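Q: Structure tokens for this one, please.
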Amino acid sequence: FWIPNLWAASFWTVDFIMSFFVAYTNKAGQLETEQSKVMVHYVRNWMLPDLVVVVVDWVMLFNSENQDPAFNSAGLVRLGKAVRYLRIMRVLRILRLRKLREAINKFDELVNSPYFTIGKGIVVNLIVILLLSHFIGCTWYAIGSSKVDGYDNWVDFYDFRDLDSTYVYLTSLHWSITQFTPGSMHIQPHNSLERIFAVTVLMCGMIVFSSTVSSITAATKFITAATNSLKNLNATYDENLWSLRRFFREQHIPHDLVARVLRYAETKLKPRYQHLDHTQVAMLSELPQALYREVYWEIYRSILDVHPLFSNLSEHNPSLLQNICSAALQEHRLDKGELLFSPGQVCTCMYFVTEGTLSYFATGLVEGGSQDLGVRRYFCEAVLWTPWVHQGRMFARSEATLTVLQAKRFQEACLDFSGDFEMLRVYGEHFVYQMNDAAGNFTEEEDDDVDLSDLVVMDGAEELVERLLMNGGSF
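A: Here is the predicted structure, written as tokens:
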């Protein structure tokens, strides 16, 4: 066993060193990555137990390799009992189970499958029973090897003393496992000490076995519920699709339109039935407002980060962005060729393209023509800072999904943060100023007057936001 022990000692030594560089979650629930704090946290918590276990591993490995008394580890410490103490301290290896548990939980989150979680729970239960059976079996053999005046012991009665140690161990393990299950075997107690131990293990085994069976039964029920839930999702889609088809038949909808609707339902709507919408997660509404807003921030932050104002606010004041994400954002879907808005309509939202491609047809612009907008593009920002009427037409060139920022709710969400309201006000003033300047509203000549586009953005927005954040919101 020298080679496996060497690998084990080397592995845990490397793990001990790497633990000084592993980030941790602080009391505020945030991931702490600052190196000095990470090292201090490890020193104060698990460094000493880990160090003891690693040292014991290497000392015992050295002792097993060097049996000569001159190099024996017991001779090094000059105490014969030292080796026995070190062997007892190896029980601290159990502490490593915490790291194994953390690794399994992280892998569970990575797999993100209820079936893996259930299977993991069943396997863990079986391993726990096997470990308990190991220790109980060893104790059972130790008791059976002892002499009791006037009585036999099971080791001598069944002539196990001279048998192969592997077979004796497996027999003891077998006897131990039968105490947790309805199984049986021919090995029976033959003195009072063995009988007391057997009764005690049997009573504990009843509790462990019933607990294990109940957990496996619960896991089985969960598998059934998860399977039924998936079937229910498909059944819900099929039921809705059947109702849709019936409605089309009763209303005599043309076949070409029916085909378009069914194609969209099959390609776009059906996959969404396989995923949970936030309205289907009841526990979200039970979260504290701070956590509730942070969840929505994590959902939408990558979408808002394409805008320089929101990307900077995300770093300097995430609470404001969390409030905006939870209160003012929603999704809007477009079919291919569908019109989003046309000239003269009152604008109420800013849009972020998250899927598909749209085409904007400008009216009244000198350059004319159309522009295509793909993923990570945004438009109609003007409505956040001033009343706005659409100046062109926006069509979906393909099936598209937009994240919609509602202007009224955005403004209401910003009012809750008076500290940042001044910065937003200054940003809005500069945006409107640039719009008027680009439209030629600051000159008396009419030759330079142009109609603005719904795609208008602020020049130098990144620099302006950084300057405002540095100056505390003032320009």
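A few notes: Residues 70-81 have pLDDT under 50 and may be disordered. The beta strands are 24-25, 31-32, 329-334, 339-341, 349-355, 358-362, 370-373, 378-379, 392-396, 400-406.
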